[in-house]
Specification:
This protein is an all-alpha fold and 158 residues long. The chain contains eight helices and no strands.
Length: 158
Amino acid sequence: MIAALTLLLLTVEPEGGMQKVPAPPASDMAILYFMAGDLRRAVDTARAGMKSDPVRCKALHPMLVEYQFLVPKRETLTQEEAKNFLAWDKKISPKATGKLTPLVVQRYVDLPLQQARTANQGGDVARSKKLVADVLAVDPANADALALKAALSADAGR
């Protein structure tokens, strides 16, 4: 029944003929490709879009290229590279994380933060502070790392 209704809706032409829907801007398409993890298409679309969507694509293209350059190194990024990787992700797609970013977040933020909590619970405050500092070097606004840093400082003051 639902299949028949769907087919009927798809075959009925609206009054006045089919209306053309404008294609999304190249920058939006590049961002969609980025979010899906297809960096080659994202970069190519942003480059091609410099004619039709010059303001946004000229800003977007270099970020995509830098992000794409770092993807093969995701396991061995320096703190500065990891910080840039996350910053480009947020600039490219502020509302949603790109498909390739969670691995970097896990390796350079989530895992060290968990290790910092474990070290703190085990009484190794110095190691915990170092790990929190490492996380904040990559993600300076990380709320969990900032909270743990404040807790460590409060404990040290007692």
